[in-house]
Each structure stands twice: as structure tokens, then as C-alpha cells.
Amino acid sequence: MSTTAPTATPPAPASAPAIDIETAKLNAANLAVREHFPPNADYVGIGSGSTIVYVVEAIKALDLPNIANIAFVPTGYQSRQVIHRAGLRDIKFDSLPTGTLIDVAFDGADEVDEELNCIKGGGACLYQEKLVATQARKFVCVADYRKFQVRLLTKWPSIPIEVEPLATNRILSQLRLLGSPNPVLREGHILKAGPIKTDQDNFIIDAPFPSLILLSDIQTAKAEGNIRAGTGEGEKWEVMALALAIKALEGVLSVGIFSGMNGLQAAEIGDGTGGQKPVAAYFGMADGRVLVRDADREGKVSLRDDSQSLEKERRS
User: Fold this and answer.
1) Cα(178)–Cα(199) distance, rounded to whole angstroms?
2) Under 8 Å CB-to-CB from 283, ≥6 apart: which residues?
3) What's the CA gap between 274 and 251, in Å, rounded?
4) What pTM value is reported for the model?
5) Angle, alpha carbons 25-257-200 (nearest 5°)
6) What is the pLDDT of residues 52-63, one digit of tens each?
7) pLDDT tens for each residue of 68-99
8) How far apart are CA 289 and CA 283, in angstroms?
9) What is the C-alpha separation between 107 and 278, in angstroms, rounded?
10) Where are any strands of DSSP class E within 115-158?
11) Which helix (H) or strand (E) holds 73?
């Protein structure tokens, strides 16, 4: 069970100038790599999306003498190209030696809540992203301030779901029964090209739901004498309950909710896998700061403002 310390955003310095989103991503990537990249790594996961480009640049900037010996595990075609352009060596997920854990996986997110549950899949790579995250000792999320939320589905509108094409219509109907008002099949940018296809040759459904509640919300309601199960009653779903309900639909390959254990918690169990949730999430803010949500081995999440150490890094 995870608990969460208060995560209200610390006030920005009064004189902090606004920066663009790309600089915010760069700041978050630099700090995440500095704090979590193990110099003696054998395998490193590289996720998908625009923020990951800055992660790879930050890794290259470390100028490690053993960089050629590190194998980078991509989460799809796009991230493999980023690895290649940086002159790094990639390895396919299914080529990892049996029983091997990835030392660290860096990836982005579409939204992250205060318990470090994530929505991912905006780039249609959720299946391989989840494979890599759950094979890593730790998953580190790197994002910008738009992804920093208290609850999932606050700003991001829907849950990406990878489905087998033959099952699409049935899954759309079943998602409506679960409470999604208007699930849609994701189309390509050119309508005549048809639906977007994933690297596994599947389709993506985007399913909107009301903002998702946390286990802590259920516990608080119970303490106040209210019964709240989080299983869709009153249009309220708890994060993991909804992820499990969608995953149970025949024809669903992967759900774009990353919840449950983080890598530190998975290591305590010792079953040779990682966790879906990140051990830390770095958010580049519009005022130049980097806010970090850190989790411990019990799943407790704390928030820190690491702008001071980032400023030291810039000056060094």
C-alpha cells in the first residue's frame, strides 16, 4: 500500500522568468540522468517521446569511458532511432539474457499523479514501454510541468489501450459499459490511411473516464464513514481497479495505466521483475525549477524542489 506526503507545488521564486517547454524538458532530463544513471550499467532502457531525446543527450554528455559497453533497450522504432543517432548500441528486448534486469529505464509520461501512477501511450508505444519498465530495477520518469497532476485524467483526456484489431468493436462496447462515455479508435493523421497501428500491428483505443481516484481517497472516505469501492460506482474508478478491469477484456494487449509496485518494491519480493510505477518522476517547470516526486521501498511518495542543485550543475 502506498501513502503520499502532501505534494502541493512549492511557490516559484518571485523573479523566476518563464522558459519554453523544451528547456523545461531539458532541465528535467539533465537532473534525472545525473541522479539515476549508474556509471557501471550493463543495460539501460530508453523510452519514447520528445523528452527522451534530452535524456539520451544527457547520457552522452556524461562522456563515460565504458559507454560502448552499455546496451540500450528501446521501447519502439522511434526510440531505437534516437539511440542510433546518438551513436549508442541498442539491444532488442527479447535479446536480453534470460533473467537479466535492466539497470534503469528512462521514459516519459502523458500524466503523473501524486502517487506516481502514470498514463502513457500517447505515442502508441505503451506495450513495449511497459515491458521495459517491468524488466528494470527502476523506472525513472522525465516530463514537463504539464504532466504534473494530483490525479490521473485531470488534463490528459483519455486512457490509451492497445487492442487486437478483430476485437476493436467489442472492446469499444465493453469500455462504454465500464463507464467510458466515448471511447474512440485512434486514427492516423491522414484519414484514408486508416487507424494508427502499433509496432505490434495492433490498434489503439483512447478511452476517456472521469478523473481517477487513489487508494488513499478510498481509505479517507472509509475513515469518514463513507463507502467507496473505486470500481466504477458513481462514475469513480480507482487507478489500479480500472487498469485491471480493462486488461481483463479479451483482445486487450496493454493498458496505458502504469500502477502497482515500483522497482524498489518489486526488488523486495525478488521475483526477478521490476515495477510499473517509477521510483521517481522529474518535472521541468515553467520557471526553470525541477520538481521531483520520489518513492521509497514502501511506496511512500515525497516531493522536493531541486532547483538549487540544478543551478549548481549549470555553474560547474
Assistant:
1) 27
2) 28, 112, 143, 144, 145, 147, 148, 290, 291, 292, 293
3) 25
4) 0.91
5) 90
6) 999 999 999 999
7) 999 999 999 999 999 999 999 999 999 999 99
8) 8
9) 9
10) 118-119, 139-144
11) strand 71-74
C-alpha cell at 11: 511557490
pLDDT tens digits, residue range 276-299? 999 999 999 999 999 999 999 999
Burial class (CB in 10 A: 0-12, 13-18, 19+), 164: middle
111, 114, 115, 129: the catalytic one is 129
Q: What angle do CA 224, 153, 168 make, to 5 degrees?
A: 120
CA distances from 86 to 72, 82, 90, 152 (A): 11, 6, 11, 33
The angle formed by the CA atoms of residues 59, 64 and 68, to the nearest 5 degrees, is 90
Q: Are strands 111-112 and 301-305 parallel, antiparallel or unpaired?
A: unpaired
Q: How far apart are CA 299 and CA 239, in angstroms?
A: 15
Q: Please state whether beta strands 89-90 and 71-74 pair in parallel, antiparallel, or not at all (unpaired).
A: parallel
Give the whole-angstrom CA distance, residue 51 versus residue 143.
6
**Residue 298 annotated in active site:** no
Close Cβ partners of 27 (under 8 Å, ≥ 6 residues apart): 19, 284, 288, 289, 290, 310
Backbone angles phi, psi at 138, to 5 degrees: -155, 140
Nearest alpha-carbon partner for 10 in 307, 282, 314: 307
pLDDT digits (tens, 9 = 90+) for 225-252: 776 778 888 879 999 999 999 999 999 9
CB 56 within 8 A of CB 82: yes
* The residue type at 145: Y
